[in-house]
Amino acid sequence: MMNSFPLYKYTKNNYTKNIPGWLYIIAIVVGLLVLTQDARPVQAASPHVDLVTLNSEIDSASLRLLTRAIDSAGHDGAQSLVVEVNSPGGDLDSMYAMVQRELTSNVPIIAYVAPSGGHAASAASFITLAAHVAAMAPTTRIGAASPVDSSGGDIGNTLKSKIENDLVAALTSMQNRYHRNVPLAVKMVTEAKSYDDSAAVQNKIVDLGAPTLSALLQAIDGRTITLNSGRQVTLQTVSVQVQEINATVLDSMYAFLLDPNVVFLLFVVAMLGIYLEISHPGVILPGVVGSISLLLFLFAAGSLAPNWAGLALMVLAFALLVLDVQLPAHGVLTIGGVIALILGALLFFNSGGPYDGPKINPIVVYSAAGIVGLIGFTLVTFLLRAQHRRAATGAEGMIGAKVIALTPLVPEGRVGYYGEDWAAVLDAPTTSVDAGSALIITGVNGLRLHVRPVRTQLMTDTHPPSSLKEG
């Protein structure tokens, strides 16, 4: 038997007209993924250095970009990788991972704090000093690496001591490895010291200063670098091309997804989409949008340092919203869901340790929770009205409707219902009514209606006792 809705319509000019829309969507998604994939590095034909710029917070996105740059420089034959740093710092875990990648790199890393007026603060100072060569442009700064929480506030003494000791040990090891000043560098952690380029170069906290990238490459030419593997490399950085490694679309998207406000909104969209699909099965679109948002939320949350008890509360909020449309709770569960969503979001995003990155804006949480609550109450209200609304079709829809007696009912007769002639029988105790009487349908038995007189009709048609007449 031929399918009534063929996948392809074989006509001369329009054979793809009936291809389902989801095939086009899949093709677009696949195309975007292909375009955003990092191209495999190609061995350069001429000597060159690679350049990557870190001008944002130190986080998972920065770690991804630096890792890709180091791998690319290792495959494309770069003489070295220049990391231009201008960052306020960031989270501790990403910093440690970036430092490790620099220390174990098989390509010489040159960190350059630039442009003029820029700084390598907090975690970014460690990224700079972990490089084989550390340089600074004029009027730049490095330091202020004391541990604080994500809002800039102080942390508990015991925890602070543990973190400081670990940071001091890491900084001491790096400075000794590259024969730089240890005591002054350590003060960046213990006393939150910050140094301008002149002081940093003069006191050997960094290796050198350079006004431009070209001057830097000229100054380090011929310098011998010892890599982690023990292999020594002599830099040849004069008259070489500079090949920039820029963030891809996928890198930008990844950085965007690390914003806690975006992550939270993804969860809200996922919750609302799946919630609407459960309460109105078959709509499909909310379920699709919700599922995609949920996957993006899980992907982004895995890159943060969240409190998972907060996630449990957020999931509980979703469960309460779903139960409120299934149980006769009359909105009570929706209220509980909104409260759980607010508490869960603040706990999930805003209760990490030091260096844990930016926090979620409470206004975003309250606003989103208000929208969720409004949608929840609206759906519950519609469901309650639907449950109390009289059926409009079928036998149930006829009950309670008014009809007119076409013939006397004694107790059986004929009545008119929306222009149709129906057989009818009176309910006890009434045994007869006259033609033209107004009646109400009380039941339907096949093709015969059960009726009773309208109460107001009975009151007006009832004759007073004869004794009152005679009186």
From TrEMBL:
One of its GO terms (cellular component) is membrane. One of its GO terms (molecular function) is peptidase activity. Its main location: membrane. Residues 395-453 form the NfeD-like C-terminal domain. It is found in: Membrane. Residues 261-380 form the NfeD integral membrane domain. It is a multi-pass membrane protein. Pfam families: NfeD, NfeD1b_N, NfeD_membrane. The keyword Transmembrane helix applies. Residues 49-210 form the NfeD1b N-terminal domain. The chain crosses the membrane at residues 253-276, 283-302, 308-325, 332-351, 363-384. The keyword Magnesium does not apply. This is Serine protease. The gene is nfeD.
